[in-house]
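Q: Structure for this?
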Amino acid sequence: MSAGIQQSVPSRAYILNLYHSLLRASRSFSNYNFRDYAYRRIRDSFHQHKNETGPTKIIELVKNAEKELEVIKRQGYLNNLYAVDKLVVEEEINEKKATRFRGDN
Amino acid sequence: MNFISLSRLLTRNFNYNLVSKKRHLNQGSISNLLKRNYTAATVPDQYASTVTVTTPTFITPSPDSLGFEETKVKKTYRPIYLDMQATTPTDPRVLDAMMPYFTQQYGNPHSRTHAYGWEAEKAVEKAREYVADIIGADPKEIIFTSGATESNNMSLKGVARFYKSSKKHIITTQIEHKCVLDSCRVLGEEGFDVTYLPVKTTGLIDLDVLAESIRPDTAIVSIMTVNNEIGVTQPIEEIGRICRSKKVFFHTDAAQAVGKIPIDVNKMNVDLMSISGHKIYGPKGIGALYVRRKPRVRLEAIQSGGGQERGLRSGTVPTPLVVGIGEACRIAKEEMKYDTERVRKLSQRLINGITSKVKDVVRNGDQNAVYPGCVNLSFAYIEGESLLMALKDIALSSGSACTSASLEPSYVLRALGADDDMAHSSIRFGIGRFTTEQEIDLVVDRVVKHVDKLREMSPLWEMVQEGIDLKSIQWSQH
């Protein structure tokens, strides 16, 4: 989608790809709270607009998502540069995962 | 010998944690290693001088461990942050908006002669729009300050001093933040009359008492929107109406309210409003003051200088921080519905989790008029400070951060008429945008565990279990 040209509604595949890129990028935060929030917020907002049909609205949402993706990539990287110890709650979650070890999850 | 060459190899990197039973120095074989050339480039005369340093701690490892010693490193974990009334983490989106002005676009927003200044000014004005937008004001009515404390000082001292020839009276409440109370104390020393309104046991002020307290010479009424310790939301709209009808200026400290509950300065008839950046996921060191233009509120500036911010707050406006508070306000407005919904859900989860497993827990403040992100609980028969110590996995506070160093019970809870023991046993849980369900569950688990443990130790709890009424006990002879 280059600027200046009349924008067309992005394809379903492109939007899904964007969604997965955002979710993947959200995992890059070293901070537990930011990571969890980013993942949850992306998922919730995509689900919220799941049935959107208006072309201008879709273009606007996709544009915002593209901007957010850049922000998350930059901030996830920056967050990692100043990483600190993990939170107590992360330890618990990891322990729980280890105890209910049954195949893939 | 084979062994010697191995020891040399090891000692070069691991000589600090060697333990040896037979400490013998291998001076001959390793002395070549220890010769270092020190050259002093600044002193040409000694350019070629060579200094040989011998380190006496150079020893061979013990044969059984090959020089390696096992030390168990305990992994440390950080506590969960649940003190959102003290401050909030900076949202990554806010930081992202600020970074350009910390790195490349460093111009002074008041520079009118070059592009560096223009771009900074443009960013500041954009941020001003966002801040104005969240409270329904005009951008021209926003003044950037260093924080809510400065905003409170400016509005109280500024209005009182400007109108001091005709007005001599100030009204505030007993549960205000320390900076409002202290400003009022200073004004009291300057000859102003200060009325500290009492609050009901719910934490709300009595509107009739307020209306009666307003005198013809009242300059300003200052009542906070959301209390920082108990989260009680005052009926700002009604208070604004009373103040407007009596033609008294109305200031509200909305540091804990902006971005969390909907605010409209025109609907609420607010004349001055303090806003803080770091309570809304913005940076620390920035705040804003809303000063109404119609009808005009006039202030005497505290700071003299270059006349920035309409002459009310001289000093260069910190562009990155202002951009940060602007972006924080923009995000807060956009996310308010989502955040409110979530904070309410988590708050309910926390309260239900604790009250279903622990008896004698009281939530302080009016149940219907409280901001859900601030949960102030009193655990009867145990001391709040000792519970805080026990809950080392959670970052909590028993009240305001400013007074958290003292062991005195909170003056806010005292003003509510809480008994000393209940005021001493209070803990404040602050829930925010980044709090998760797992964190709340862990907090509930730890609180329940430690409250039970501390109560088992408490003689008061034992007496209550035996059916003794604590109120009937004479603790000391008076």
